[in-house]
């Protein structure tokens, strides 16, 4: 018999669900209960999105962690009839204790960023805006990592023949890093298959970033990522290095606005350009 773990916060039952924003009562993950005296003021759910967490790690260092998967943003507000006051620390420690109870990890010094396993998925979540006030509210940002359902198959040959290049969003890196993540293998195999099927073709691998951070750092990063992809194609795909060039252009060639997180996600990419 399968065993399912639930996160149980120290709370009592309150008739808050009836006061949730319309549609939000079905959005909360089933494995997570809520703090007492709070209702869902707002909610957002995306079947697949990339979210960049920011937190202070256990060594008091600012860390950025980008995670892709099923994304939730839950905004909780205190019920007007609730007379008790909850400190931000009390809220964070409730979640911390619940995560530790199911053998998850509390990753931040402030006990506001967590990782745990639920129903075969890795769950990352962060508590934001948990401050002390009479009308206190807080936000939960949750990402459940799972393989994205591939609805569109890309014909690389057709795309490159038509446009001379193709953008790949399945080649993934951690924030500020140039080490290719294991889940990038399907996208990289697609490039390898294309090059094997077209032995006369030579390509450039071009790295792109959004405009976050210093331009000089992003130039260095985009070049390093392109170089890492080239090295992968040579070592794993047995593609001759003479057929491959690599370079990085940072945020010089955006395909969307850098004014939104969605636009930034589109600008962070690797392009395969026919020589």
Give a topology summary:
Elements (H helix, E strand, L loop, with lengths): L37 E19 L5 E17 L9 H14 L3 E2 L6 E6 L2 E8 L8 E9 L10 H8 L1 E4 L16 H13 L5 E6 L6 H21 L8 E5 L12 H7 L1 E6 L1
Parallel strand pairs: 8-9
Antiparallel strand pairs: 1-2, 2-6, 3-4, 4-5, 5-6, 7-10, 8-10
Can you offer a commentary on this structure?
The strands form 2 sheets. The protein has a 6-stranded antiparallel β-sheet. It has a 4-stranded mixed β-sheet with strand order 7-10-8-9. Helices cover 23% and strands 30% of the residues. By secondary structure, the chain is α+β, with helices and mostly antiparallel strands. Mean pLDDT is 85; it is low at 1-6, 8-18 and 148-153. It is elongated. A hairpin with a 5-residue loop joins β1 (38-56) and β2. The protein has 5 helices and 10 strands; from the N terminus they run ββαββββαβαβαβαβ. The chain folds into 2 domains: 17-145, no CATH class; 156-274, 60s Ribosomal Protein L30, Chain: A (2-Layer Sandwich), CATH 3.30.1330.
Largest sheet, strands/sense/barrel: 6 strands, antiparallel
> How large, in whole angstroms, is the Cα Rg?
22 Å
- How many separate domains make up the residues? 2
Q: What fraction of residues sit in β-strands?
A: 25-35%
Seen as an oligomer or otherwise, the chain set is single chain
- The average pLDDT score comes to 85
Spell out the helices and strands N to C.
EEHEEEEHEHEHEHE
Number of helices: 5
Strand order, sheet with most strands: 1-2-6-5-4-3
- Termini separation: 57 Å
Number of strands: 10
Q: How does the overall form come out from the CA principal axes? A: elongated
Unreliable segments (pLDDT under 50, ≥5 consecutive)?
1-6, 8-18, 148-153
Helical fraction equals: 10-25%
Helix/strand-derived class? alpha+beta
